[in-house]
Amino acid sequence: MRYRPFGRGGGALSSISVRLGASAAMRGPDFVRGLIYAALEQGVNTYVLESADPVLAEMAGEALSAVERDLVTVMVTLGAGDGRRGSARDFTPEGLTHAIDRVLQVSGLGWIDVTLLDEPGENELPQMSLQVLKAQRSAGRTRLLGVAGDGEVMDAYVSTGAFDVLATPYHVNASWQVRSRIRAARDRDMAILAYGYYPSVLARGQRVAPTEAPVRRGLFGFGAGRETSATAAPPADSFAFLHYVQGWTAEQLCLAFVLTDPAMSSVMVDVDTVERLTQIIDVPERDLPAGLAAQVEMARVRSAAA
């Protein structure tokens, strides 16, 4: 495993971050423990909880108690519900405070390294909620504040200077808007995390038109028009060659390509079995095949012209 600088405090993240969600929690503590132990043995020091689900937090906290707390980075995604049936999106000051309290209480982690807000809409994150999060950071209960998502509203959140981390979809055919947003975040000394490195349109290898995301209005004053999802790549047949590179799977190539970008601190990977972890864990140690980066650039041009 290779490690990359993270944040202003001199920390380092493993190039791959393991993301754990409801599907992992449903398989029980033994599964979660085994998966985390396997990842630790391979040098993964970064774990992302997809929600504030107390069951998931307790399982992850128990497994990670086997190592010194300062040696691992734990991120928790807030705002999208707590993973339980019927839970709703909640970015209120009370909701965010309660979620942080609950995660810390059941996990025994001591602190959350990154509190990551799940794509809050322009009208979903009150200023009071930001003040509450900053107070949690000042108290050491969370060390960094981050925002995750896609769409025009993310530009506004980056521009506020309120966040330390940006998590963004990023893949071989990422749009210029996403690339511009990453540059803007770097200019503000924000750390960058990637996810969605292998969107389904590339996995299928067929021509699929970009999808439209819902309009979100409010807090930052954006209004008309619709957003194009960065995870819905333009026509994927231009990238069909990714499925025919000897010794590589298309997913491995997509992950390796994202890791060539020095702006990325880590790439979030959804792992549901130890076998799947094994398939991708050595990607950071491999060099892209000769000429593949040039092929990707040419494919981008073709897909943009299609």
Descriptive report:
With 306 residues, this protein is α/β, with parallel strands linked by helices. It has helices at 22-26, 29-41, 54-64, 93-107, 127-138, 153-160, 176-187, 200-204, 250-259, 274-280, 292-305; strands at residues 3-6, 11-14, 16-20, 46-49, 73-78, 112-118, 142-148, 165-169, 191-195, 212-213, 227-228, 264-270. The protein has one domain (3-305): Alpha-Beta Barrel (TIM Barrel), CATH 3.20.20. 37% of the residues lie in helices and 19% in strands. Helix 5 links the parallel strand 6 (112-118) and strand 7 (142-148). It starts with a strand and ends with a helix. Residues 206-236 have low confidence and may be disordered.
Features:
single chain; 306 residues; alpha/beta; TIM Barrel; eight-stranded parallel β-barrel; two-stranded antiparallel sheet; 12 strands; 37% helix; 19% strand; globular
Write the layout of secondary structure elements.
Layout: E1 3-6, E2 11-14, E3 16-20, H1 22-26, H2 29-41, E4 46-49, H3 54-64, E5 73-78, H4 93-107, E6 112-118, H5 127-138, E7 142-148, H6 153-160, E8 165-169, H7 176-187, E9 191-195, H8 200-204, E10 212-213, E11 227-228, H9 250-259, E12 264-270, H10 274-280, H11 292-305
Parallel strand pairs: 3-4, 3-12, 4-5, 5-6, 6-7, 7-8, 8-9, 9-12
Antiparallel strand pairs: 1-2, 10-11
